[in-house]
Amino acid sequence: MSNQVKTDVLQADLYINGKWVSEPDQSYFESLNPATGELVGTCAIATAEQVNEAVSKANKSYTAWRNTPIPERAAYLLKAAEVVEKRKEELARVMTKEMGKVLAESLGEVGVVSATAQYMAGEGRRLFGETVPAGFLNRNITMVREPLGVVACITPWNFPVALASYKIFSALIAGNTVVWKPASEVALSAKIFVEVLDEIGLPPGVVNLITGSGKTVGQTLAEHPDVKVISFTGSTEVGQKLAEMSNKTLKRISLELGGKNAVIVLKDADLDKAADGIVKSAFTTTGQRCTAASRVIVERSVKDRLVQKVVELTQSLKIGNGLEEGSQVGPLVNEDQLHAVEKYVETAMKEGGKIVSGGKLVEELGGNYYEPTIIENVKPNDTIAQEEIFGPVLAIMEVDSYEEAMEVNNGTIYGLSTSIYTESLHYANRAAKEAVSGLVYINNGTSNAEMGVAFGGMKMSGNGHREVSYHAFDVMTEWKSIYMNY
Ligand code: NAP
Description:
Elements: E1 10-12, E2 14-16, E3 19-21, E4 28-32, E5 39-44, H1 48-66, H2 70-86, H3 88-99, H4 103-124, E6 130-132, E7 139-147, E8 150-154, H5 162-174, E9 177-181, H6 187-199, E10 207-209, H7 214-223, E11 227-233, H8 236-247, E12 252-256, E13 261-265, H9 271-283, E14 293-299, H10 303-315, H11 335-350, E15 354-357, E16 373-376, H12 383-386, E17 393-399, H13 402-409, E18 414-415, E19 417-421, H14 425-434, E20 439-442, E21 458-459, H15 473-476, E22 477-485
Parallel strand pairs: 1-5, 8-9, 8-11, 9-10, 11-12, 13-14, 13-19, 14-17, 16-17, 19-20
Antiparallel strand pairs: 2-3, 4-5, 6-7, 7-22, 15-16, 18-21
Helix pairs in contact: 1-7, 2-4, 2-5, 3-4, 3-6, 4-5, 7-8, 9-10
Bound molecules: NADP nicotinamide-adenine-dinucleotide phosphate.
NADP nicotinamide-adenine-dinucleotide phosphate binds near residues 156, 157 and 234.
């Protein structure tokens, strides 16, 4: 932390009421590149007063924004899609520098932002109401969706802009205004996204950016009476705290939380396809995805053949700086995350696990690198089979039947994503029905969301709401019923 604003690096100030704001005594924190340790930029630490100011401006701009016809609101989103595409390369490079994912992934993520803007612009035209047959003569009953007011969007670092775009664009098209708190690790990427929203000429106060301590900003937003909705993506632990804090003012809260996703491989599966899906799901984004596969549950008779294929593919992955051509696995986001991964691997060894690939820091590269790691002989109740690791560690578990596999799959507190590889129509259909998770993939890895398809988890992976599709309006709007006697 420092009070000094450096001029030779990027700087993220707060964005309140259409202006970039910095007080003379504003404190800043440093954003470091996890691949090199270099300073990427400095980001403002908002005070509680500044958070309150952002909420107040968002609240003030709400009436005019909700009264702006939807096609006009949609036009802003379509413009945002264009400008984001123009700044794609710049934004993607800053994302890679801030949190380490390889450039191709960052570019793909920026593409999701423009696709979300376009999708939500279209959905605005379909914010239909309902008519209900009246029980009395000469009466009409209609139900309409209405916006709620100020929406606080709180987002994690692993998808710096895509997750924010799901929240911000669905909030805006529905007629709400926004205060956005991005993760501190990626505040500079957030700044560029907000520059785009500034460039398209959104009215002042409609979107505000607040960076700084999750605890201070989060608590102020959660307790503020004028914040009507909290849309949060992040860890289950923080989600639970936010839910408790926001309960006092009866806010609506949408929680997208952690996962402990599994790939089930039955003995009749195409093992080459399964191995490919497993490796992509486990090690893309260095395993730092809520939908990353961190468990493989395989029928005993094909375990050795499957593990051999998974190990071969894993060992062919190129670890390196995400900005370098050819890198496939970047660094972990920070040293804490790196040490957490080291500790999980140590614990797995103590509990009887056996490393079949990886298991070490990659010290020669200098950044927060850890080898993609595969551990077999893991039992369903072992620590690495139960807790979210959020790193490149894959646990292999053997079972004797589909039924046992599904029991192990469902035997954690989480329920985000389940995948099954099988040629059997019977087991594929049973898995679709019996997996207790918000996403089920048949003959595909665990991590592959498409626009327009409801995204979210069951059990402790969320609180029942969904994003990425029009179902987001169940959070971003509320129903009003109108009785008219004529
Ligand atoms: P996190 O620590 O929970 O942080 C998420 C956001 O909450 C950040 O903006 C953070 O700000 C803020 N925050 C931290 N403490 C807070 C508090 N006491 N009150 C209010 N806000 C607070 O999660 P993360 O490490 O950024 O992201 C990883 C987690 O996100 C994993 O568990 C992953 O599974 C989950 N995730 C879920 C999904 C999904 O859709 N289900 C998608 C992606 C990620 P600071 O950065 O300033 O601390």
